[in-house]
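Predict the 3D structure for this chain.
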Amino acid sequence: MALFDKTALKGQVGLQAGKDHRSTNSAANDGDFSAELPFLMNCDPVLNGWYTQAVAPTTGFAAALWLSRHLPEKSIILAGFTGQRSLNLKMLSVHDWTIEQTVLRLEYRMGTISRFGDSGQMAERASIENIAERYPELPAATVAAVYADVLRGQFQATDKVVAHLSRDRWYQRIYNKLALRLGLRRWR
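Done. Predicted structure below.
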């Protein structure tokens, strides 16, 4: 909360998403500021029944879907949300990035969400089937094409990281050959 002028804040919005969510009201409870308009965005109904149950949705994804459903007249614009791991490897594996990117790209195509810069039974079924049921107005081929596009992007991002790691490993192999010739300690 240190980034905000505490006198300018009108309240705090709590967000819960997924069965193992933590309370997001800790800032108000810890006395960081006084919340005048407490509000809880319960995103579970928006995600229930189709999001992969073994992992939790990202709060940004959950909030974007909640806002698009509850405020359809407002523009929801996302910045970031690429679902691609950067070279600093910042991307947790506790979320279903493929599902999230597929749904976000379908939302982009439908115009319900836009991107900044751009004009039980669950375990038995494939995730793509659950997404197709969520969007009955779209042909299954469209959902599959978006899903494939997300996977392509993730594989390309993985290739970049692997190439980066391979390059570093190449330097290590060169050093080890040189160290062997010079009698130095090898790099493991």
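The chain has six helices and four strands.
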